[in-house]
Each structure stands twice: as C-alpha cells, then as structure tokens.
From TrEMBL:
The protein's name: Putative lactoperoxidase
Stored Pfam families: An_peroxidase (PF03098)
UniProt record, GO biological process: response to oxidative stress
GO terms for MF: heme binding; peroxidase activity
Keyword Oxidoreductase: yes
Protein origin, superkingdom: Eukaryota
Keywords in alphabetical order: Oxidoreductase, Peroxidase
Length: 158
C-alpha cells in the first residue's frame, strides 16, 4: 500500500514525497537508527515535552521547583548508582552504565561535567576520549556518587 501511495506522486518534487515514506527510506545518521528527518522530528518532540511540562524537574518556576542545591544533587545521580543500589550481588559497574566498560590510560578529565565543557558529546563513534569508563566498586562514592537527601530535609510543603 505504501509503495502504491509513493508511486502516485511525481517523485522528482520533494514536496510530493509522503513524510513517512521519506523517513523510512532515509539513510540512518551514523550511530543512529533513524535518518535526519525522523531525528529532527523526534528531537523536536522531546524538546516540546521537556520545556512544555511545568513539572519537568529543571523547571525553576512554581511551587514544585527544586532549589539549586537539590538540582545539583539530582544531577549527581546516575544509572550506575541505581544499578549498584538495587541489584543484588553487584560489586562493580562502569560509571557510564549505558556504555561498554573500557580499559584506558589515566583519564584527562575527572568527571563527565569537566569532559562536557571541552568535548562534543556524544562523540560520533560513541567513545568518551580522555574519560575513563573502567569498572569501579559500587562502594566508591567518588566515582559513582550517592544522592544526598538532606537537601530535602527542611522543606515545608504548604
């Protein structure tokens, strides 16, 4: 059916291409599952969801807004810490849990924040040059920080 719909139009004019057909036939962006058109639409949708949601955790307006110190604590949390705290018998994990662990020489950067100030992220090939993703102990709170809930202790809800 889709092929029939695409044949009905003169394919020499970009205005006549069905958007769905165009998106599924585009070459994927390197390292992605979709092409540039679908990537742009998905990115725009996530942007609209993030900034259009008054309860988005980074929104600074309203009674539900977090303080700067609370946001700093939230940004320290990671999937690696979630794995360490909730999976039985997990003793080590790589700090960037969604990326493969790597063995690398001494890193140039001590943290992802420092890395992101001077490097483009993510790298096109998915690597984090100068930032180590070697497995570390779950009890190493410097490498995989734990959320400090004391920042919420004195909050008064009205």
């Amino acid at each position: 059916m889709f092929l029939y719909a695409a044949i009905l139009f003169d394919s020499s004019r970009v205005e006549d291409i069905d958007p769905f057909i165009g998106m599924v036939t585009e070459e994927p962006i390197r390292g992605a599952a979709v092409g540039p058109t679908a990537g742009c639409i998905i990115a725009h949708q996530f942007y609209a969801l993030k900034y259009g949601d008054r309860f988005w955790y980074e929104n600074t307006e309203g009674l539900q807004a977090f303080t700067d110190r609370q946001l700093r604590e939230i940004r320290l949390s990671s999937y690696a810490r979630l794995l360490c705290d909730n999976l039985a018998n997990t003793e080590t994990v790589q700090p960037y849990a969604f990326m493969m662990p790597q063995s690398s020489p001494r890193p140039r950067y001590d943290s992802f924040v420092e890395f992101s100030r001077s490097e483009k992220y993510p790298m096109e090939d998915g690597r984090l040059p100068g930032l180590s993703n070697q497995r570390v102990s779950c009890s190493d709170y410097q490498a995989i920080p734990r959320l400090n809930l004391n920042e919420w202790r004195d909050m008064i809800y009205t």
